[in-house]
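Q: What does the predicted 3D structure of Divalent cation transporter look like?
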Amino acid sequence: MNRQIFTDLLEMKEFKAVKSILEDMDTATIAELLGELKEKERREAFGLIETPKKEKVFAQLDDDMQSCLAKTFTEKDGQNTREVQEKQYFDTSVLIHAKNRIGWLLFLMLSATITQTIIAHYESAFAAVPLLVSFIPMLTDTGGNCGSQSSTLIIRGIALDEIGFRDIFKVMFKEVRVALLVSLGLAAVNGIYILLRYHNGMLAVLIAISLTATIFMAKLIGCVLPLFAGKLHLDPAIMAAPLITTIVDAGSIMIYFTIATKLLGVV
């Protein structure tokens, strides 16, 4: 178990991710992990353990930890977990909340100018075929969702020590196969929709190719970025999502209009 990522998730209040990780761990591993945590982290993590496991984990802890946790969790499990989460949120000042979030939000805002520049470069293309613009949100959103899915699974694997940088090519190969199946399904649905609504075969082909390329790009970026972040001793849970959003948005639009200029003959 990667203790650093686990504690980072606790610090960022990513309780759903922590709970998901704990659900996949056996009781002995959880007990060992709790023994490595600081007292506050231990209480938080223990409160997120599902009820059937909690008693078994508790029985494997030493007397000091049992005493500490027994004082903290004396009420019903669901209420305790909720109280811990609420306390963490409300005990953190507004200034700290803002400080923790504004950095990446500022980065995302500034990086959006990259996407704006790309769109401006292809202004003549959507001036010639205005309908092209209406598909931009679908492409960027699909790419972002695909990238986020991959990164979430990889970060979870890193946290559980199931995946490491050494597995990067195995991960990429698997994500490429996933991307192939996903893109075939989504491209087919979009192609049929465009044919039925717009009766435009070339537009359907354009969207299908662009969507396929976007999904492949997003899946690869989503799986590779967290691994490189871990290799560089950065927190993948913090930096992966903003970078994936930025890169996929810019990349998907560039792919889309590059293919559009070739297929539709607009410049």
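A (community wiki): The structure tokens above were generated from the sequence. Residues 188 and 208 are 7 Å apart (CA to CA). Residues 74-87 have pLDDT under 50 and may be disordered.
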